[in-house]
Amino acid sequence: MSSGSVSNNESESPGKKGTPPQVVANDSAAEHSDDGLHHSPKRSRFRLRRSPEPQSSAEEDLAQLAGEVDEDRILESRLRTRKKSKSTFQQNLEKLKRRKMQVKGKGNIEQEDEGQEEEDASDDDDDPKPFKGSKPSSGLQDDDSDLEQSDTYNSSDFIVEDEASTSVQLPAEFSMETHQDISHQFKKVFQFFVHVAAQPSRKRANFMEDRMQDEQYFSVPLQIVRRKLAGIRDSLVASSVWRPEFKKSLEKYPGFDLMYLDFAVPSCDACHLGGRMSTLLGRLSDSPYNRFGFEALPPRRSDKNELKEFHLGRFCARRTQVYHEFSHWEQSLFHSILREIDVLHDKGSLKSFHTVAFFGGKKPPEDLRDADGLCDWLDERKVIDIEWQKLKKMMESAQHLELGDKAGETGD
Q: Where in the sequence does UniProt note compositional bias of the Basic and acidic residues kind (predicted)?
């Protein structure tokens, strides 16, 4: 069969399927066919080309339809394409998202900003109003003055401006000074009482009251020691069956004497428990005093009617004596200091000998109103330690009351 017949058959057979692919043979195959050689040619490579009939047919249909319609009946589009309007919240949200996507590069951001400017320019006529209750987010656009003003107004409602750093001074009761040992607090109390004793007797009450209100260096330690000793007295010393009148009398009079009775007396004036026998007599003495300055108060008519003698049993007598010591420890300490200063006030005492801690030790100041100098002189003589040991012994006696009662220690 000739090469011409083969090509004809190939062109006819695919025609039955619509749009046949065109076969393009190489130049070598064409040369062999022209020479009319009868040997079989080499298998040629070919490519399939799609026919552009569907696209051309659509254009032909449109052209045919346009030809059938009269030109005067065709209306040109006078309206722009409809775009769905977005609320202010959605627009601000999109702007915020674009700012967060700055990793794409400066070029992409500039293109987006230009496109957004075009959209904003086209939507100027029908710019939607923000809905009620909406609040613009901060930092969306630097050049949007309205958003900046509203954001500043909203942020001022809850953002507090940083003020100058000022140190807050806590009350003295919450300072580290209150956590020091009670022995250290007692030294400050001793110093405070020296300042009070150095004043004239008529000025001591006002001086002490003023220092308690104005000088925390002295008032806070005194309050701490008072609270400490009052807690021990009320919890370990006082009995729950004691009457308030009995405790009030013990707190009022600074003097207390305890003596044995010649014979036992039924009942106890402290606890009033049935079946108790009193073998001791407690007697209150001295005049009441002012808690500021520790000066004696003038007697009153009501003092004569108060009971100052009590029949006490062995256990109540011991507790009554310790309770009285706890109630007047300040007055006892003050008079111990005052006796030391009164010796210096005696006529000619400074010109004669005076007590020192050791040879060449500190001497009392020439000006007896120098409270700090007096305190240093007493401290070197160990007077502060002696008074602290007295107070410490009193606190220990409160913790060993039951042991002392079992041993039969009543004390005089």
A: 29-38
